Model the fold of this input.
Amino acid sequence: MNPCPIRYAVLLLLLLTGVITLHAQTNDTIVEPHTDLNEVTVTATKKQFGADASQMSVVALPLEQIKSLPAFMGETDIIKSLQLMPGVQGGTEGSSGMYVRGGGPDENLLLVDGVPVYNVNHALGFFSIFDADAVKSVTLYKGSFPARFGGRLSSVVDVQLKDGNLYAYHGKASIGLISSKFYVEGPLWKGHTAFSLSGRRTYYDLFMQPVLAIISGQNESLKRLTAGYYFWDVNAKVTHSFSQQDKLFSTFYMGDDVVYANVKTRDYAVGASTAEERLKTRMQWGNIVAALRWNHVFNSNLLLNTAVHYTQYRFHTKVGMETALKASMDNENGQFALTYNSGIHDVTGKVELDYTPTDDHTLRFGANYTYHIYRPAIQSLMTRMEMSRQVETMDTTFGDVPVHAHETALYAEDEMTLGNYVKMNLGLHYSTMTVDSKFHHSLQPRLSARFKLYDELSLKAGYAYMTQYVHLLSNNNVSLPSDLWVPITEHIQPMKTHQASLGLFYDLRDWVSFSVEGYYKHMDNLLEYRDGANFFSSSSAWYDKVCQGRGWSYGIEVLVERSVGNTTGWIGYTWSRTLRQFDREGETLNQGQPFPAKYDRIHDLSITLSHRFSDFVDVSASWVFSTGNCATLALQQYRQADLFGYGSQTLDYIGQRNNFRFENYHRLDLAANFHYHGKHVPRILHTWSVSVYNVYNRKNPYMMYPGYNDDEHYVLRKVTLFPIMPTLTYNLAF
Amino acid sequence: MKHYLSFLVCLSVFSSCITDVEFSSEELEPQLVVNAVGVVGEPLSVSVTKSVAVFSNTEDITPSPVSDATIILTTNGHSEPLEYDAAEGVYRSATVVHYADSLGLQVAVGNQTASSRIRVINYGVEIEQIRFEPVEQDDYYHYEKVEDHDDSIPVAWSLDAEVGITLTDPGYFHNYYMASATVFLYHAPANDTICRWFRWEDRIHNEAFQDRYVMEDGPYNGKTISLSQDYSFYCETDEKGQSLHVDSMAVEYCLYSIDSRLYRYLQSAYSNRQLAGFMSLFAEPIQVYTNINGGMGVFGSAAKNVVRVRIF
Done:
């Protein structure tokens, strides 16, 4: 039997309410000097996006708080933390997929220092590429997008990396069960140039080698077997200040995931000769991001921001095989190698101006141009046969032709204050895309307005029209490195959304804030796979496997958040529906009737709580609950009638697309952090973190598949990937 | 502490990660399956069965016909109950179906009900021309085309032929067709009949069925359509492997003008059957079309045109 989620919810709500109430009663009399730094950070956040700000549907992630929360396998993850916010849902268990207000994972614009990143996943999505130690701030926009953002439908995640410290060296290092990482920052030229550098690598593959050596030792046919998986990434940033008016920022990120397997056989007899075989496979994928940004302050009213940046995502697979035949008279050798490459390259140049003519107006306008190169799938085959001193080789390349595209954008926005009660951000974003000599363009109005009802309570409204020119071809279940980014074609039109939102925001004397937002989002030209389309089949072009339709999402999001004091946390709840309808001629799904989207989760609740007992100990907990995902599943079978005398066959019956709901998802995580300063080097702060993922061992579904159980009954089987998992991590900081 | 850690380790390691999914009784409850095609000039026959839960832990999914259903057919406002024909396992109407009839069907079995409403197609397109052109390909086998029965037909023989039909699409609205060609071989001594269907191989667009050609007029709206194919046939053998003496041979060409519901049902049912095997795990499931409210199956209409040609 499944544990009753309602019971857990009520219990945890009561517990949380009790703790918050208890703390609230005593909070006024407590002075907490050790939390000064946190308070400054949070105050800035409140001023930016609280009840006073014009912007709505935006979340500034409380980074310091996030780091104390229970972490999956000990690795604090930015994207997974965002999933705890209302309006944001995760994909499958443990993955860092993000579904914002009914949008797909390809509808999120993920920016690192202003540079888009196409694949933010490590390890099939179990980790994201963002190293929390290297990140200065994370801001998520879910709607009412300012005009400076464009190109994606559903969200913008603006990640700013740390600039480095101009005056002192600081660093952090951590050793976890599966990975280790470091972060260091400091001055290169005191007061003028600073750097920050971080790196991370998993070492699961290193642990595997002794096991594989034992396996290969026990196998008579194997001489050597090595295999493994690892990922690594590096963030580097250098900031140079020429003067008070001019600053230069350079950002570099590179990361890779690598899966490899090398097999070498023992010599075996082939007639009178012996032979050995070697098999080498390697799959590698990752991003490169590089940016150079120059800030120039003309005067106190005018600021220029100029940048060039490059982003690349690449996926590479190579399978190589070599057979060597050792004969008494002569040797023969055969080699075979097949490679598969895909990827995307972008080069962007942009100029932005911030102009503040009066206290009541802040104008931002700018332009950018991006040159895209899409390489959907390029394969090459190499064979080499050496026989009786004669060599025959073949080296050929085939596959899709690279697609070149040009994207431009112009925007202007005005952050204006109208009297004491009204503040708004009004903007216009115009974008164009030229691909295959086809020109597309879109004019997108944006609006976000705040009406102050009284000092700490405001009503906000927003509207945004967004257009997206790229699509991610994915099987939707897991994030695979082979997922392809493809541009619009003459068959596939740009995706578009209109989103309107309305909300109430209340800040209660700087210690807790409340917000309630409702939204309605209409989406057009969405992509879905056609009935029967096979993701792995290459018998037809990708655009023949998909069809376009529309969708809509609506919901209410509630957030209660406390970011200051010893006890912090938030409760985020979302009620939402996300539906799709594909009823265009030749592109019909579900008989043209509306159906729930795969990630249509009606209820989504997350409760996080952190409490700092002292400078030495803090504890945290998070509990999440959500309605199960949808899947299309044949639950009934029937015999097709013998309508015309041609016999009858068995058919699967599917009532509608996404007719089956997985069971509800819920999970409790706990963590405790113990801090102390070293005796010999007091500057170093040591932290031991113990966290337990899925404390009550809830068997949440990761995937399902049909099969036979031990009783030989045909059943649907549920795979749970992550049962209860304790993790120990060691961190040091100086 | 040691015990606590041991407990955690055991809990983690021995947690079963693969479990069976339990379904609610609603999800497992058999649904009504109603199949009916109103063929112009014939009484309506309705087949009623029930579906079987896929994950019901039973191996037999062959349903038996439901014989205790109450079925009311409404034709242009006039209602009649359908009688059950136990021999055929179907319900039949007393009246025949006409072009453009408005038909309503209400089915009740126990506390389950299903219904559907259609308008019968307005016309039926007829075959204009047929083709059957034998081509001898192999000297070893001997084939002789004769107009009438001829005892000199050899025992071992093969037949290669080009066959085809021609029709003219009326050109208004969308029209849908289903075409088939069936070979009938008659042999002594019991004058048994062996039926062999042509395997239509589509050369026009990819909508070929194994035995039937189901198509929509699409690019041929208002034009003459020729369906043709190569046909290859080898002599039949009896239980002992001896070639049968074929006395005569006939080909039956059948052209149905069908409505869009039936077309969509046949198309999706065909695709549904094709999606099998390991790779289907990576494919989107195929939803079979239905216009039965409260159940599954199809209620459609058709007009039939049959031409039978004796080859020898």
Notes: Chain B has two domains: 25-120, 129-259+305-310.
